Input
Amino acid sequence: MFDRVFTPAWNPFYCLGALGYFYFWVVAGTGLYIYIFFDTGLTEAYASVEYMTHQQWYLAGVMRSLHRYASDALVIMTLLHLLREFAFDRYRGGRWFSWVTGIPMIWMIFAAGITGYWLVWDMLAQYIAIATTEWLDWLPIFGEPVARNFLSASHLDDRFFTLMIFIHIAVPLILLFVMWFHLQRVSYAKVNPERGLAIGTLLMLLTISFVKPAISHAPANLDLVPGKLDLDWFYLWVYPLINVTSAELVWALAFFGTILLLFVPWLPPRAKKSAAIVNLNNCNGCTRCAVDCPFSAISMQRRSDGAPFSQEAVVDPDMCVSCGICVGSCPTATPFRRRGPLVPGIELPDLTIARLRDLTEQAASKLCGDNRIIAFGCEFAADLEKKKCENVGVVKLPCIAMLPPSFIDFVLSRDLAAGVMLVGCRDGECHYRLGARWMAERITGVRDPRLRARVARKRVRSIQVAPAHTEDLLSEITKFTSDLAEMDLQGAAVLEEAERDSPEIGAPH
Amino acid sequence: MKHVLQYCGQALVYALFGGLVWYFSSAPQYINLASGKAVIKLSFAHAAQHVSACRTRSPAELQKLAPNMRQARECPRERLPVYVELDIDGRRALSESLPPTGLSGDGASKIYRRLTVSAGTHTINVRLRESARSEGFDFAVMRVVNLADRQNFSIDFNLPKGGFILE
Output
C-alpha cells in the first residue's frame, strides 16, 4: 500500500534508518538555536525557556517545538527500524555489527531526551529529576543518595544544571559517533531520505509545532510534589513503570533486555550458509565483487599467488552473508564456458555457478509448450515455486543479483527458453540491500557486468515483487507469456512475408 | 488523478503519524500524586560512632611496629550501624538499622525513603541511635506539622547543624 501511495522511492518503510538520521539532524539543528537563548540556573533555566516559548514564539518557540517533536519521531523511527530489521531477519551473520552497535544508541537517545526535559526545570523536570535519581540510587555505587540533591530547595544548586547541559550535549555527540560506527560495515548506506519524503515529514513536524507548540509546566518547586503531569510517553514511560512495579524490576528489565538484544544475532542458532570463496586461478583482481558487496565483506589485497595482477579479492567470512551478489558481478562467471570445469573467480560453495548452470538446463529440459519461460527468482521475493507450470521453469537464488547477466544470454541464445524472467525483491526492500538495484543496472547496461547487446530485451522481463503479492507475479507471468506469443506470431508473419517476397530457389523461369 | 490520490494518501499517512506524535508527546495525563496527599521524605547520610573507642598502644606493642607506623593511638575504622525510627501519628511508619557503607564498613550509613500520607495535621516523631547503647536514642525530635496538599516535607539529619532538620 505504501508503495502505491508514496512510490517505492519515497516509501518511508524503505528508509526508516535514513529518516532516523534526518530527525537527528533536525533535533541537532534546532537544539543549537535554542541553546543560544538557554540559561543554566535554578530560576534562569525556566525563565529562558518561557522567553523562547512566549516572547519569541515565532522562531525560538517553533524551534523548541520542532526539537521536541523531532525527538519523538526519532524514537518512533528507531523502534520501527529495529522491529523491521528483526522481522525481516536482517540482523544475523555479517549483519551482527550493525545490530549490536544499534543497541547502545537506544540508551543514548533516551538519555539525551530525558536530560532535555530536565533542563526546562518545571514541575515535569522536577518529577523526572527525582524519579531518575531515585532509580539510580538503587545501584549500590553512590556514597550518598543522589536523590538527596532534590530533598528540599536548600539542597539544590546551579551546578546540577551545568552537569545536565553537559550530558545533554555530550550524549548526542557520542550518539553521532556511534551512528557513524553503526554503518561501517554497510556499503552505500542510505543516510538521507528522498528529498520529497524529507520535506513532507518536516512539514508535518512544523504543522504540529505551530498548532500545538511545546509548553512548560509550572516552574519547579521542591516544596511541592508534582501532581498531574503531561508526560511525553515516547521518552518518559519508564517512570510510571517504576512507580507501578519497582526500581529493581525496571533495572532487571533494562539490563537483561539490553543483554538479550545484544545477543539476538546469535540466538536462536541458525546454520550459517558458507561464505563466498575466491578461486585465485580465475580471479584477475578486477574489483567488481568488492565494489558490489553490500556489506563490505570483500577487500582487495596485494596479490599472493604470483599471478601477473596487482590485486586479489579476499572475503571476510564473518562479514559475508552469502548473498552471492559478488558471483553475479564476476565476469568469469559465464555459463558458456564448456572447456574444463566451470569455476569462476568467486562463488558460493552452496550454489556454485556450475550447479546453477545445471539447474538452469534441468529446468529448461522440463518445459513444454511454445512460450517457454525460465524464471530466476530471489528466495526472499514472491514464492516462484507456486507459479511453476508447464511453460515456466524456476531457478531460485539467494539474491537475484547473484545471476550473472551472461546466464540470460545463455538461456536465450541456446534456445533453452523463449523468455527470461527475473524476480527480485522490491528496490528499498531488498533483503540484501542492493541486489535489486545492481541487477537492474546490469540489465540496463550502466553497471558491470552488462547484459550483452545482442540479447533481445523484450524477451527479458524483470519484476520486483514482495512475498505478499504473488498475484502480481502471476499476472506478470501471464502477460509475459502472451507477449512472447505475440512476438512469435509477428516473427512468423515477417518470415512468411520475406519468404513470399523472395524468389524460390530452383524455381523454373 | 492518480497523483492527486497519491498526495491525498500521503497527507493521510503524515496526519496519522503526526497525530501519533502530537497525542503521545503530552498525553494521556499522568497523576503522580493524587489531590489531598502529601509526601514525607526521610533521608540522610550519617556516619555513626566507631565500633570501639580509641586506645593507647603499650610501648611493647609500639616496638613491634615499623618505625614509620608507630602511632601511639589505635583507632578502629569500623562504624556502628545507625538505627532510625519514624512514627507518624503514633504509628510506626519506619524502623531500620542502616549498616555503614564502604568495604571496611567505615563509611556513612545512608537512607532515602518516601512516604505518602494524607494532607493535614500529623504528629511526627523521629529518633536516631548512632552509638553502642542498646536502649534509648541519641537524637529524637517530635513535631506537629500541618501538611498542605501535595506538600513535600523532608526530614534530614545533619550533626554539625544540631541533628534532625525538618522542613
Notes: Residues 21 and 191 of chain A are 6 Å apart (CA to CA). Residues 503-509 of chain A have pLDDT under 50 and may be disordered. Chain A touches chain B through 47 residues (CB under 8 Å).
